[in-house]
């Protein structure tokens, strides 16, 4: 089993209640045009997806791990916790 398949299998052990709006935004979306976009690789839940000429953020899938805040080379990710009662819930610890 590949490591990607193992992550996808574990994603079924979580429950997510989406907030009304995204808790993740980009400070300057134009910065993604000149970036190598490592966020497409380091996000385990594939929240970041490059579509044509813009970054699509599927915040509903966010695991709230915070990797994107730390690993974005230009510090372009603006991240806050989802509002009370929404967000990720882990079933096993």
UniProtKB/TrEMBL annotation:
Keyword Iron assigned to the entry: answer is: yes
Q: Where is the 4Fe-4S ferredoxin-type domain?
A: 22-52, 53-82
Q: Which UniProt keywords apply?
A: Electron transport, Iron, Iron-sulfur, Metal-binding, Nitrogen fixation, Transport
Asked whether the keyword Metal-binding is assigned, the reply is yes
What family does the database annotate?
To ferredoxins from P.putida and C.tartarivorum, ferredoxin I from A.vinelandii, ferredoxin II from D.desulfuricans.
Per the entry, what this protein does is: Could be a 3Fe-4S cluster-containing protein.
Q: What protein name applies here? A: Ferredoxin-like protein
